[in-house]
Structure formats: structure tokens, C-alpha cells
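User: Can you help me understand a structure? I only have the sequence.
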Amino acid sequence: MTSRPLLRVGPVRRFTRNLLCPVDLFGHSLLLKYTRNPAEAGEEINGHARLARHYRVPALHAHLRVPGGHLLAYERLPGGTDRGLLLDLLNASEASGGLRAYMNQLTTAYRQAILATARTTDRTRVVRKLYWDRAAPGGRLDEYYGGRDFLIADDLIDVPVSRLDTYDLNINGCRHHLDWVATLRWLRAHFAETEPVWAALTQGDPTDVNLAHPLAWFDYDTAGMNSISGEFANFLWYASTLGGWLVPTYNPAAFADHPATFARAPDNTPEIRRADIEHTTSTIHIDYTPRLAATRRASVTMYWNQLVRPVADRLWPGADLANLLRPYLAMRILGVYNLADLAPADRLILLARLAEAMSPAFDPATYFNPLESPCPAP
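Assistant: Let's start by predicting it. Here is the structure, written out as C-alpha cells:
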């Protein structure tokens, strides 16, 4: 009879600024998380406790200070190569019954928790990390774009973004206009307003790597009373754009244990068909083919129909969801990656997506589930 080792340590993985390591200790399966920031460690511990009242989360067995940071020991849920996350359902070749059952469970859990905890909340009391802090002086908008100009797309559209307002944009046959400087000013002003917002207890960063399969929630430093509009914009943008395309492209280490992500990336990567300037009319033409795998399309559709719409009908009856989601979406487009650091083609598509989001014709129901279609009637 072979005895099990008392201690087994798995590979260390880096996720943003944190390190994760699976450990088997005296028959217990643990996931160790090391973070250098003491404030974030405190937010993680408190967020886990808050979230556990309404959502399934792995047990937090211990947390302690160690040289250079904090170590947290969580219950390790079952998983493995291309197993254990919503991401793995989204990396399948088709939208299976398993994905639909998962999304039913996910949206039901969110709908119940959000409606049970929703209340109008002073903006100073919501979780501020993903939106308000990034728009504040010295935040990411300033860090990325303050006093900086860059080309719309090197060797494709050699015009500085600061001059976008002097051009008309023809994007996939639809007429748009984008004032880069005014958009940044508007975002800063929006997140400096003092009116209360509808907030509810959520995890705050609902990505396909923070949602386990079977259903559970990971990563708690943004858990707490989050803006409901921000919660919705976060999931929809990640599921439709970040998770299948940009994050695998610019942070591939996050998917070391889920290599099917890279095989599926072409199904989620937009393609530029045209990018040029018509100087006689000061028009920039951008034609691109949007792509979204069937699995991601199904998840976005179910999330919208089974969570966003029912919650909006209760909290904002008759309101324009485009206006509610627009500032949060714009912040996700601009405040996750620095557009100036991206490949020119990727930057061009994101600027086109920003222009579409800022348009009076912005329709979230189709924006996050893109199909090649004619422009809506003016």
C-alpha cells in the first residue's frame, strides 16, 4: 500500500500581482495565495467574509503575515488542465447543455443576491477600486493618458488621438464621432459626482477565471457593495471581449492551466478589413469583423436576458440601460489596458468600440453580442 505524501506543492502561477500555489497538506487540498499589498490582503479577507453570506465561496482556513506580504490558505476546489472554471465551458466548441445549466444557476444566484441586498448607496461607500479610483486624480486614467498623446493606429491611421474630434468616423458603415479629450473629461466628471448609486453585495470582478465550475466565486478584494451597473458592464465586457481575446493576448500566463483558451482565441478575435482616411471629407473609415464564439454568445445572451433585464426592470423601470452602462463600459475599455501600449490593430478596434459605446445609438443588447448588421435608423 502506497502512502500519500504529507506535503505536496504544485506549480506557482502569477495572476496580476498575486501568486497562487496548490498545496496538499496532511490530506487537505489547499490553494495558497500570496499578496504583497497589506491593504489588498485586508480587503480580500473582509470581502470573503461578506460574500460568504450570499454566495458559495471556498473556505478560508488561515491567513498570516509572511516576509514581504500576506499568505492566505483557501480550500482548493476540484480542477485541473482545462477544468474547473467557467472559462473551460466557454472554451468548448459549442454551447452545451452544461453551459446553459451553469448560466441558469449563475444568473439565479446573482438575481437573488442582488435583489436581496440592493439599495441606493453613497458613492463613497461602494467598492471604488475598478471605477472611481481609476477615474480619480492620480488614477489609471491619469497614469495611462494624462499629458500623453499617441497615434490612433501606427501605420494604419497615423492621426493622434487628440485630433479624433476633427474627423468623422465611419465604422462598419455607421457614422460616429469621438472626442478623445472630452471623453476622458466626461469620465472623470462622472465618477466625481456625489449622487447615490444602486449597489448590491457582489464579488465585483466577475470574470470567467473568477467563477468556478461547479459554481463558486474566487478573488474577493473587490467584494462588497458594488455598483450594479458596474457589475453588469464588467461581466459583459469581459465575456465578450477581454476573456476570449485581449487577456489571452496580453496576459497569457493567466491561462497556463487552461491552454484551450489559446486554441479558441481566433474565434473571439475581431479582424480589421479596412482602415484608411478619406482626406477630402475628413472621414476615417474603419471596417472590422466582430467575432464571438457560440459559447460566449450564449453566456452573454443568458446573462442579459436572465439577470440584467429582470434586475433593471425592478430597480430602473423604464430607464435607458445604455446611459446606465455607458460610463462603466467606457472605463473598462480605457482603464484595464493602456491603449497606447497595445498593438496598433487592437488599439484601433478598441477606439472603434469606444466610439460605438459613446454613440447616441448605443444598444447594449447588441453591442455585447455583435452581429454584422446595418446601422440602426437615425
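Now, to help you interpret it: The chain has two domains: 7-75, 86-367. The two ends are 75 Å apart (CA to CA). Let me know which part you'd like to focus on.
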